[in-house]
Amino acid sequence: MKRAAMVVNPIKIKDMRLLHREVEQVMRRHGWAAPVWHETTIEDPGFGQTQQAISDQVDLVVALGGDGTVRNVSTTLLGSGIPLAVLPAGTGNLLARNLGLPIRNRKVALRAALAGRDRAIDTLFVEIDTTGDGVADESAICTVMTGCGLDAEIMASTSERLKARAGWLAYPIAGLRHINARRTPMRIALDDNDFEDERPLTTVLVGNCGRLTGGVRLMPDAEPDDGVLDVLELSAERASWAPLITQVLSASTRTTSQVRHRTAESIRIECEEPTRVEIDGEVHEHALAVRISIKPKSLVVRVPRSSKPS
Predict the structure, then answer these.
(1) Model pTM?
(2) In this predicted model, what pLDDT tens digit does every residue of 170-185 receive, in sequence order?
(3) Which of 29, 48, 162, 299 lies in the 20 to 30 Å Cα band around 116?
(4) Which fold has domain 123-296?
């Protein structure tokens, strides 16, 4: 009999007993054994729990939480061959949205995972240099998107209280505080090419997936299993935000003085001054250089038999 491991962020759950009953009932009806339960903690937000699940040789690991929990579980599952199922319980739920997973009902999402198919998707390997000596002192796996500059500033200023009250609208609300954000001089090198001339940029976004909440297609051509990372460079000041937002919302990929879309297998970004970076919503401080590379089809995820991005 197949068995799954549940890796749950308890902060996202109002009634843990009810969750146990719901999950075990669905598992039983699909012919699965009762799952092994693991709860994340502040000290271990999902890595150790997932490693234990791998050691237990389960058939499926189910991550129940926000994008951070999903990323931590995904990081540990790389190379294991065990598929990941996602029960969305966060504000953005971006990986779930991009994979066409059920968002609003966890029982529906679990049933879809148990009866679904496996899909191998890419991940991004992110290295951060905070000292400028050319050596990465931080690294992480990214499943959806990494942002350098304004994007990370918005993430850093979006409080848990605002997210609880406004849901995904918390991010554009927080973004209004940064309408006067100044641009940061950055240099970019794609693949093994030399660095391009320095440009003042508002933000650089590097995506494995391209959809945001609210149906916004930030990177219209991005697919999570296409073997390339998508790069979006934005350069705007206060007076030029309106046309930039219009272009982004229209899902246009044309290049202008404010917007540039490109693809690559790796990217290096150098910042003139310490800059915030966000990786799937987790903010890292004081980056002077960032390197991001694609890890093709490195993560197996469970998706519905018929799935479309939401």
Answers:
(1) 0.90
(2) 566 556 565 667 789 9
(3) 48
(4) Tumour Suppressor Smad4 (2.60.200)
